[in-house]
Amino acid sequence: MSIISVRDISKSFGRTMALSGISLAVEQSEVVVIIGPSGSGKSTLLRCLNALEPIDDGEIIIDGIRLDKHRQSAHSVRRRVGMVFQQFELFVHLNVLQNLLLAQMVVDLVAKAEAMNRAISLLRKVGLDHKTESYPSELSGGEKQRAAIARALCMKPRIMLFDEPTSALDPEMIGEVLNVIGTLASEGMTMVIVTHEIGFAREVSQRLVFMDKGKIVEHGPTAEILDHARQPRTIEFLRKVLK
Q1: pLDDT (tens digit, 9 = 90+) per residue, 207-238?
Q2: Angle between helix 141-153 and helix 96-106 axes, rounded to 10 deg
Q3: pTM confidence score
C-alpha cells in the first residue's frame, strides 16, 4: 500500500478551481518533486496532504489514515507528516532551541531532557548546533529554513512536505538548504517537494510531476520527464525554465 494515496481529489476556492481530478501515489522512501507555473495548484495540493486545506471531493489516505472532515483524522495525519513552508514560520519570540522544544513537549508530551537531546542532535545534523540561543531575527534566510527543517524532524515524521523551500532565499543560501534535503533523501525519508530547482529535482527525486491549471499534465521518472517530456505544455514549460 502506498504511504500517500490521492484519488481524484478536487478543491476550489469560490469560483476558482484550484485542483481538479488529481490522483497520485507515493511509495515509502520515495522522493517526488512537483513542478509547474505559479497558480498551478502545487502548494494547494501539499496543504491538502497535510490537512491544512479540506478537499471538496475525492480521497486522501496518508500512512493508512483516511483524511475526512473529522478533526481527529487531521490531527493523526499531522503527527506523521512534517511540513516546511516558503517563509520558515518560526516563532519569532522563541530562540532556535525553544522553537524545536515547543511542539515536542506540548504536543507529544516528551520529557524536557529527551526533547533537548533530540533538538540538539537535529540542529547538529543541519549545521546549527552553534545557534541554539539565537532568535530568528538573528539568522540568515538559509539558517531559518534549516531550523524549520530541524523543527519538523523533531516530531519524527514518516513523510516530509516541502513547499518551495528555497524560494525566499538569496542564491548563495539555496545550496545549504538543498544539501540538508538531499541528506534526508539519501537516508530514505519519504518526501514530496514543490520546487523550481530543476537541477536539484533531477538529483534527488525518483519521480517528477508537472502540474498546470489545477491538473497533473504529466508525471513519470524524473529523467524521462526532463529529457523526453511528451506533453506539449510540459515541453513548453521546461523549455522556459531550462534556458
Answers
A1: 999 999 999 999 999 999 999 999 999 999 99
A2: 20
A3: 0.93
